[in-house]
Amino acid sequence: MFYIVGLGLCDEKDITVRGLEAVKGCSRVYLEAYTSILMVQKERLEAFYGKELILADRDMVETESDEILRDADKEDVALLVVGDPFGATTHTDIILRARSLKIPVRVVHNASIMNAVGACGLQLYNFGQTVSLVFFTETWKPDSFYDRIKENVDLGMHTLVLLDIKVKEQSEENLARGRKIYEPPRYMSITQAVSQLAEIEELRGEGILTPEKTLAVAMSRVGGGDERERIVSGTLAELLEQPSDIFGEPLHSLVIVGKRLHHLEVEYAQTFAVNPEAWRNVAKNVYGCSLD
């Protein structure tokens, strides 16, 4: 049996009982370590699970999946992923590979940012397409995300923006020269994300991300509890003005608020606002939300 087990969002205790039982019964257990990260080190997981974990980086998961699936038709093997197993297309691909090899597959679900984003007070059924925002370079500034956000905006839906992480990445020079030298891990900040959104808005000029008139919610370490989780709401302009430490440690996510905004959403998210009065004014005067 090949198990793909969601670990949740925070630490070693977020695994489900069903997931832990599966892990304890496996002969090999891999930890996928590049689409997201937990808030604890691998050793904490190993101590709690009672199993040695084999780190599976991008190369292993995407190009050496046969090694992960080796003998899974004869013994139990698990791949552990942060959040929920279906939070990344990579995990869908390895499940399809297992099925093509006639290996039985069992998925153990868990919490992910896709549902935990509701902690900011915006209702899940008012969310549209989720988009990813990658680090810009001098020569590469992909803007396809803008079209997805615009589609959501046109429907009045909120947009969850997942911010880029770079783990075990090579520089362009080292990649070109075939040198296995990796850059230090990098995690996109809220400030950088808002700056990149504003840059593309200026280039596209369609007015869907006007900094002074677009409400947004910044989220950090969602699921980590009061001592770790941070939620900050305001206009894009207000978020850009804040000191970086107000947003907490990575990982970060950003929500672009849609016009189909309920007054209960306004009131809930207002508790996290940089300027509660300004938050309400924009919600009322720009978004047309009735707050009487």
From TrEMBL:
GO terms for molecular function: diphthine methyl ester synthase activity. This is diphthine methyl ester synthase. It catalyses: 2-[(3S)-amino-3-carboxypropyl]-L-histidyl-[translation elongation factor 2] + 4 S-adenosyl-L-methionine = diphthine methyl ester-[translation elongation factor 2] + 4 S-adenosyl-L-homocysteine + 3 H(+). GO terms for biological process: methylation; protein histidyl modification to diphthamide. Residues 1-239 form the Tetrapyrrole methylase domain. Its EC number is 2.1.1.314. S-adenosyl-L-methionine binds at residues 9, 84, 87, 112-113, 163, 222, 252. Pathway: Protein modification; peptidyl-diphthamide biosynthesis. Coiled coil: none annotated. Belongs to the diphthine synthase family. InterPro entries: 4pyrrol_Mease, 4pyrrol_Methylase_sf, 4pyrrole_Mease_sub1, 4pyrrole_Mease_sub2, Dphthn_synthase. Keywords: Methylation, Methyltransferase, S-adenosyl-L-methionine, Transferase. S-adenosyl-L-methionine-dependent methyltransferase that catalyzes four methylations of the modified target histidine residue in translation elongation factor 2 (EF-2), to form an intermediate called diphthine methyl ester. The four successive methylation reactions represent the second step of diphthamide biosynthesis. Transmembrane segments: none annotated.
